[in-house]
Write a structure and sequence with these properties.
Blueprint (H helix, E strand, L loop, with lengths): L1 H51 L14 H17 L4 E12 L2 E12 H8 L15 E11 L5 E3 L5 E4 L2 E3 L1 H4 L1 E2 L8 E3 L4 E10 L9 E6 L2 E2 L5 E2 L3 E6 L15
Antiparallel strand pairs: 1-2, 2-3, 3-9, 4-8, 5-6, 5-10, 7-9, 10-13, 11-12
Length: 252
């Protein structure tokens, strides 16, 4: 009886050991299968994503100019167009007067845009006087002065006064004579004739706004510095004048 009991115990122990070994071998397979299934699904998902996802391609777009760029271009075009035109007005033989034997004739009077005139004459007005840096309009007066008297007379046209609108201009302040011509200021002997002139600046008017000009030259004086006769006064109307070319007698 005891032997049978021992045999039963051995059999039970043997069976329990087999069950324990089998249960330890199965569990990893289940986990492995799940892992493989998950991994496989993830790989399929990644492959699908790689196949279906495409990077967006950027199509080249034409740049449209901004309003500021268009406005700047327009202004530059307008400036270039204007500089090719005549930005000046000029009148020849604008007046003549004689006082005490001295004859003064305005051969030419001109008003123009400073930069335009500089381009035409090939010189900078600022080299003549720094006052020209403060203006955009310049003027020119060419005179013929002739002493028809029998005595020495003195005249100073550059010390005259020019009135344009409500502006009074003293040409002497700009001190810019036309050096290619004769000096018309100072002492003139009997029978002497000179042609010359000067430049000046205009602050309050553009060249095309200059319509009426008044030019006053102080009275002559003799060798004793006594005044001779009256002041010279010229009134010039440029309303119907555009641009007259330089008179032939002054052309080079």
């Amino acid at each position: 009886m005891k032997k049978i009991f021992n045999i039963l115990i051995i059999i039970i122990l043997f069976l329990s050991m087999n069950l324990s070994v089998n249960s330890c071998a199965i569990a990893p397979e289940i986990i492995t299968e799940e892992t493989e299934v998950i991994t496989t699904e993830e790989e399929i998902a990644e492959e699908t994503t790689e196949e279906t996802t495409e990077e967006p391609t950027e199509e080249p777009t034409e740049e449209t100019p901004s309003e500021e760029t268009e406005e700047k271009t327009t202004k530059e075009e307008i400036t270039d167009k204007e500089i090719t035109g005549v930005l000046a007005k000029a009148m020849n033989y604008a007046g003549k007067q004689e006082e005490s034997g001295m004859e003064i004739e305005i051969i030419r009077i001109l008003f123009g845009d400073k930069k335009y005139i500089e381009k035409k004459i090939g010189e900078k007005f600022s080299d003549c006087s720094i006052l020209f840096d403060e203006v955009n309009t310049v003027g020119e007066i060419l005179l013929r002065v002739t002493n028809n008297s029998n005595k020495i007379l003195n005249i100073r046209p550059d010390k005259g006064i020019i009135i344009i609108g409500n502006e009074q201009i003293n040409p002497e302040d700009y001190y810019c004579e036309i050096y290619t011509m004769e000096d018309i200021s100072g002492q003139l002997y009997p029978g002497i004739m000179r042609i010359g002139g000067f430049w000046f600046g205009v602050r309050r008017s553009t060249w095309d706004e200059v319509i009426k000009v008044k030019y006053i030259i102080d009275a002559l004086y003799d060798e004793d510095y006594a005044d001779v006769g009256e002041d010279f006064q010229f009134e010039i109307n440029l309303s119907e004048k555009s641009f007259e070319p330089m008179p032939e007698e002054l052309s080079p």
